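re: the backbone from monday

yeah here it is again, tokenized this time
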């Protein structure tokens, strides 16, 4: 299951399915519903995504989840009309809705232990600043079973250099936290007992900023990827002026006091 907790302006999503926090189809639906609530809650300014325990962030999808027997025709029909069968216990399912959901509110990722497959995809897709414990291990082992396509689902080549993405996707080997940092998959590596404190410090810093400014920064950054330079500059200018027209020009009171 997933645990969703709020404290002040920060919400924590914890993947909790021992022993290695694998995802079931039901948990993907739960993730979708949690993210909907997280995005809509005006009192929540930032999130933290982590895994329960110290053994795994998430080892990916539960390959032992029972799938219904389907004919080839039913499989093709389901692929072309997925919304007809989102209530069934199989893949693909709600994970598709999670991965395509717009999100303009920051999430800090905190990974410990195994971070594989769908867990690796969620860690990278659903977080914006990422920390790893020294015991974290990352990988996309599905290629060894003929299961490809994760690179496109994650747009991994937009996150890290091409050769680094190919190393993860085609070799299917596991990398430790230090190498993940060198590949710019995570911002920093910390001791396991410092992981959540580090994530909380980052989330609190983000939550201390005016939420409208953070919202504009997130959306303009994301949309700018698919725009020409001139269009990106125009969009950023429009969003900036829109936000500034309804926000005070002075910095937060805490910064004013520090400056004095």
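seq for it, each position gets an aa:
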């Amino acid at each position: 299951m997933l645990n969703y907790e709020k404290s002040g302006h920060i919400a924590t999503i914890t993947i909790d399915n021992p022993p290695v926090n694998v995802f079931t189809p039901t948990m993907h639906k739960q993730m979708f519903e949690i993210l909907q609530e997280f995005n809509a809650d005006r009192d929540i300014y930032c999130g933290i995504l982590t895994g329960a325990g110290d053994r795994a962030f998430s080892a990916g999808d539960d390959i032992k989840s029972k799938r219904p027997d389907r004919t080839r025709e039913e499989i093709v029909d389901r692929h072309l009309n997925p919304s007809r069968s989102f209530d069934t216990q199989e893949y693909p399912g709600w994970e598709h809705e999670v991965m395509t959901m717009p999100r303009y509110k920051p999430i800090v990722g905190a990974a410990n232990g195994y971070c594989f497959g769908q867990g690796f995809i969620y860690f990278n897709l659903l977080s914006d600043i990422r920390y790893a414990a020294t015991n974290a291990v990352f990988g996309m082992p599905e290629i060894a079973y003929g299961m490809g396509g994760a690179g496109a689902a994650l747009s991994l080549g937009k996150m890290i250099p091409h050769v680094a993405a190919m190393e993860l996707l085609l070799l299917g080997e596991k990398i430790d936290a230090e190498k993940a940092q060198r590949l710019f998959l995570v911002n920093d590596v910390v001791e396991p007992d410092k992981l959540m404190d580090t994530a909380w410090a980052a989330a609190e810093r983000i939550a201390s900023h005016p939420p409208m400014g953070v919202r504009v920064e997130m959306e303009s950054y994301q949309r700018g990827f698919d725009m020409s330079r001139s269009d990106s500059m125009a969009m950023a200018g429009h969003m900036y002026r829109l936000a500034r027209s309804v926000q005070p020009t002075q910095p937060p009171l805490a910064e004013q006091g520090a400056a004095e």
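The longest helix spans residues 25-40. The beta strands are 2-7, 10-15, 46-51, 56-58, 107-111, 114-116, 129-133, 137-139, 175-176, 188-190.
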